[in-house]
């Protein structure tokens, strides 16, 4: 495909979504009309409906395997309806979470066997992988403290501390496994410092 898929990962409260928007502003200035921002689960009408099922506060218990299947159902539609056409058109797609999140949340957090996730990854993505991943990392306590400043928390954000520790550990394991693709950024720093780190990585890939 002609375009690039850049994914943004990290546990809740690390400022990831803010950095997606800042990266968009930076890249759009360099590549006008070529940058697309999206998110997972979501990105399409069907994906957003699945997101609502998964994240609504006070929702009934959802099994970890069920979560994984819902995520991949949303991802398949996302790929076919938005991501793949954008890449074919030569766009730069910035995606707030992608399959690394499935390995971290449903794998690390929920205990879904990694081979199940890998199998669905192969089925759903037809070999597509992110070209570049930015992993925003901070201690779980930091992320949760930032979350507490919000009024409304979704179902995932109300999980126990240990859940997020397992998620973070899996993210760091993935980064160690794929150092050429996944760049770890210290999200404990202030917003401007984090943005500067993002810019340096993007510049290193000749994107800005």
- Extract low-pLDDT stretches: none
Taken from the alpha-carbon principal axes, the silhouette is globular
Largest beta sheet, briefly?
Answer: 5 strands, parallel
Share of helix, binned: 40-55%
In the sheet with the most strands, the strands line up as 2-3-1-4-5
Q: Could you give the order of the helices and strands?
A: EHEHHEHHEHHEH
- Radius of gyration, taken over Cα atoms and rounded to an integer in Å: 16 Å
The fraction of residues assigned to DSSP E strands is 5-15%
* Quantity of strands, as a count: 5
Nearest-integer average pLDDT: 94
Helix/strand-derived category reads alpha/beta
* Number of helical regions: 8
What separation lies between the terminal Cα atoms? 20 Å
Structural overview:
The protein is globular, with a radius of gyration of 16 Å. A five-stranded parallel sheet has the order 2-3-1-4-5, sandwiched between helices. Helix 2 packs antiparallel against helix 3, helix 3 packs parallel to helix 5 and helix 4 crosses helix 7. It is built from eight helices and five strands; from the N terminus they run E-H-E-H-H-E-H-H-E-H-H-E-H. The protein is α/β, with parallel strands linked by helices and 208 residues long.
Task: Record the SSE blueprint.
Blueprint lengths: L3 E6 L6 H15 L4 E5 L5 H11 L8 H25 L3 E5 L2 H11 L4 H12 L6 E6 L2 H8 L13 H17 L4 E5 L4 H14 L4
Helix pairs in contact: 1-8, 2-3, 3-5, 4-7
């Amino acid at each position: 495909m002609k375009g690039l898929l850049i994914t943004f990962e990290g546990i809740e409260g690390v400022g990831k979504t803010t950095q997606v928007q800042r990266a968009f502003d930076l890249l759009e200035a360099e590549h006008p009309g070529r940058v697309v921002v999206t998110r997972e689960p979501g990105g399409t009408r069907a994906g957003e409906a699945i997101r609502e099922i998964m994240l609504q506060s006070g929702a009934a218990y959802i099994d970890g395997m069920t979560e994984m299947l819902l995520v991949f159902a949303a991802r398949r539609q996302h790929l076919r309806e938005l991501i793949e056409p954008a890449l074919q058109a030569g766009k730069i797609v910035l995606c707030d979470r992608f399959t690394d999140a499935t390995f971290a949340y449903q794998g690390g957090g929920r205990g879904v066997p990694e081979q199940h996730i890998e199998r669905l990854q192969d089925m759903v993505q037809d070999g597509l992988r992110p070209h570049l991943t930015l992993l925003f990392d901070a201690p779980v306590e930091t992320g949760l403290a930032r979350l507490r400043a919000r009024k409304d928390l979704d179902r995932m954000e109300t999980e126990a501390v240990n859940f997020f520790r397992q998620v973070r550990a899996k993210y760091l394991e993935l980064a160690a496994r794929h150092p050429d693709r996944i760049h770890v950024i210290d999200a404990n720093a202030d917003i401007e410092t984090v943005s500067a780190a993002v810019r340096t990585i993007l510049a290193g890939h000749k994107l800005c």
